[in-house]
Amino acid sequence: MHREALIEPRQEILRTAARLFQQQGYDATSMNDVAAALKLSKGGLYHHFQSKDEILLHIMSHALDITEQRVINVVRRVEGGPEERLRTLIRLHIEVVLSEEDREITVMLHENHPLPPVSRRKINGRKKDYVHFVENLIADVQRQRGSPSTVSPRAAAFALVGMINWIYQWYKPDGELTGDAIARQFTEIFFRGAIG
Amino acid sequence: MHREALIEPRQEILRTAARLFQQQGYDATSMNDVAAALKLSKGGLYHHFQSKDEILLHIMSHALDITEQRVINVVRRVEGGPEERLRTLIRLHIEVVLSEEDREITVMLHENHPLPPVSRRKINGRKKDYVHFVENLIADVQRQRGSPSTVSPRAAAFALVGMINWIYQWYKPDGELTGDAIARQFTEIFFRGAIG
After folding, report:
1. B161, A166 in Cβ contact below 8 A?
2. Which of A77, A80, A96, A87 is nearest to A167 (CA)?
3. Measured between alpha carbons, how far is B35 from B44 in angstroms, rounded to an integer?
4. Are A137 and A85 spatial neighbours (Cβ–Cβ below 8 Å)?
5. Contact: A189, B190; criterion CB under 8 Å
6. Distance of CA A104 to the CA centre of its chain
7. Is A26 on the interface with B (CB under 8 A)?
8. Of A131, B19, B55, B130, which is most buried with the most CB atoms under 10 A?
9. Half-sphere exposure of B60 (CA within 13 A, CB side)
10. What are the tens digits of pLDDT across the range A9-41?
């Protein structure tokens, strides 16, 4: 039985494809597998995406959209100065990494899948934009606080993004470390360590 | 023309296979591709490894052996107390991540490749052992220094391992941040941030 009407068809396709790519590998997953998992006909799937490469690119773009909407755009609107914005960024970025709904999408950003060169450059450019945003915010906080730190905003940004993006490698929803505990302790490590 | 005598055959096979897996994807790489890249006959390759799964498992084990030999075993022999051991661990772990010779092998540890359950448990167990080693060392340093930090050794260990293992995602050998600069700044962030 085929079902041709998904509620948010493109997002559902991306989420299901991301799950299959992780469970059975990107190459081992066919467009047929994706269609079958969604109870779509192959035509129904091709109506939205022409190829697996296109799905992969859209998964990665969608992961970056999520970061933009739920982290950057919110942080920009925070009133109260750079320190408050940086604390908010750490908390929201951790929330995105831990989001059960989006984890399968966002994890794909970090895996090394062979994208065509043009797409790869586009995705890598957006990843770099995020690091620059974090770097500039750290520089603002250091300046405002008259920080004595000899850590450069750039090295600090890579350390912060690394410790947060790495969480998906070890986090267990039923483990000892809750999302709140991680956010509190990572914020403390980072503020004491890189701002001082 | 086939060449049946590699100098360190198993290590050369693992390194070449790891490179191919990253360039063209694990599933898209066949045993034939691995043999061809090494100028080995298929029989020559099968003499060492029976399957691609076996190669993948050995790549991961080898990456963990490298960490054990070049980080843990050296750190255990450092004289001068836990603080000196922790500083050494940070420096050596960064060196392993940056090692040009081993990068293709060690990166495989972090990618999500479908291993058979028994192998996966074995690899995950050894990864956890490493985090525990780091965690215990951090606890020793906090105790010895009478650290006022409210960061738990466990959260601190995940933060440290995350920021170091993430380096492969952004590091450029010809970039501004050299290995030494990374080691100095990450050590400062971590010691000020998690020990205090």
Report:
1. yes
2. A96
3. 8
4. yes
5. yes
6. 10
7. yes
8. B55
9. 23
10. 898 999 999 999 888 888 889 999 999 999 999
Task: Note whether B11 contacts A: Cβ–Cβ < 8 A.
Answer: no
User: Is A185 in Cβ contact with B159 (below 8 Å)?
Assistant: yes
d(CA A57, CA A62): 9
Instruction: Report CA-CA distances (Å) from A153 to A85, A133, A161, B102, B191.
Output: 15, 11, 12, 29, 17
The token pair at B38 is 């090494």
Nearest CB neighbour to B25, from listed A23, A114, A158: A114
Inter-chain CB proximity A150 and B191 less than 8 Å? no
Residues making up chain A, counted from first to last: 196
Dist CA B162 CA A42 (whole Å):
40
For B133-188, what is each residue's pLDDT tens digit? 999 999 999 999 999 999 999 999 999 999 999 999 999 999 999 999 999 999 99
Is the ipTM reported for this complex over the cut 0.90? yes
Residue A133, chain B, CB below 8 Å: the answer is no
The pLDDT, as a whole number, for residue B43 is 92
pLDDT at A26: 84
